[in-house]
């Protein structure tokens, strides 16, 4: 059971960290110059990701993590209480 | 009332507030001194973490750096926020579950060795002192400009204030002062940003304003800025000049370094439950993001305003802020073509870059420098990037109370970070070195006394760094991040996620990361300074980004060495299992 909890935890981590990598290192750095071809309002898109967008995504990612982990904690807590 | 008087009032009031809080929340046990009795609410802890985190470098230097670097400056924005995702997901909850006082505590227990603990203490002290030096310098700059006292006297005043609440209050005092300091600093950062955004674009939200059109025109601010900067011979503001690999590595070094900074990690030891550690990392990042998403807007406004208000202006008619900053030596003007007009463009104005002032005055009344002109370009202005945020309200001609507020905010930022760092240094000396290694039989009361003494000594040394600074604020801080990324972060991460790692692997990893990163940085920053350019760098990676390579070396060494020695004992296995379960 502990194993399952840890495995679900790792799954959540790998998904969220992939998004973390894509929005910052991906959109903000590696593909930034190509995204700059698109302009939204006064912002070139790559520039926006590098100086604004990535930060907003970071905040959202942590709160998704909090939500998912609280749900996971609850699920395993309920189960262990049923057992005893 | 004139700005100077207002500044004294604002700074005085904010200091009185901090001292009041320190007296109210002073610590009486080691538990309170080190981790505030684990009783801090996650929102309060989030604010305290944000204040702890946002240093003189974030408040004073960062927007100024970005203003001159343009898109290259994004490394600081992403680097110093993205690390919180790593911290929240990979470290904070587990370290809180472990539930001890310091970061070396964890490393010592997980790698079942006092040698590992000692290596961690050395890395931690190294990182924290490099970082704290930058803070004290920031305090000095603010004091000398706004209160017109000598930079050194400013540093000493700052030391006294920090001494008072860090030594008396410990973590508990620091936490609640930091909450107040966060409020002061964020207010001080946002007010001028909002004012300037309205003045320039008519949009009251700076985050949107800098993507908006200029007042009374259809031209976007950033497009105008690109045009103006290229005309003056700079690179376009929204384009990179550094290579992609260098930007990648600098960002990575800053992110992993952030997650490995002991004074940030230890903040998550102060909350009551594991789930609170996750929550408070989230709140911390919100509070940080408010400033960090405003900063690039401030940068763009400042660059635009700066060019507008000095370019082709007669020196005699130059705005008063220009002369004020010149008087304390952070702006210099050399009339290369003798037309009495200020010309600003790309390139260094002076030979040897930094001005060396003498006491003379030139024909227009400007301060004279001993440097020769750098005749390879027509730029006549030297400007220290650290002043942009502080000068911004004056450049935009905002009222005096806004200027005073910014001074108080900058001090809040520098003092809160310095206090957090000093506490980490003192805890690692009194707790890790004395209590756990060399003087294991001391009582709690004695340990508390030693903690206070080492905080006092640490403050004194930090002050010396501020008076004899080893470089300018942001550069020194970059060094600390590289080292944190290359030493502490990998040891913590593998400690939680890789059970097979034994003490031999961990120690070898930390030492190799420490040695290779500091050798590279010291070589290019202090010994072979003339070779510090992209052609000579390893794979084109600058010293600022080398912490990332140091980190990879650390992982590689640790994971290969660990197979030559026996597995960690069963008790460590169980400990790791227990921290993995909330």
Count of alpha and pi helical runs of chain A: 3
Question: How far from one another are the termini of chain A?
Answer: 14 Å
User: Which oligomeric form is depicted?
Assistant: heterodimer
Poorly predicted regions of chain A are: none
Q: Given the helix and strand composition of chain B, which structural class is it?
A: mainly alpha
Strand content of chain A: under 5%
**Fraction of residues in H or I helices of chain A:** over 70%
Whole-number tally of structural domains of chain A: 1
Order of helices and strands of chain B: HHHHHHHHHHHHHHEEEEHHHHHHHH
**Radius of gyration of chain A, in angstroms, nearest whole number:** 18 Å
Strand order of the largest sheet of chain B: 1-4
Secondary structure class of chain A reads mainly alpha
- Biggest sheet of chain B, open or closed, and with what strands and sense? 2 strands, antiparallel
Principal-axes geometry of chain B comes out as: globular
Largest beta sheet: strand ordering of chain A: 1-2
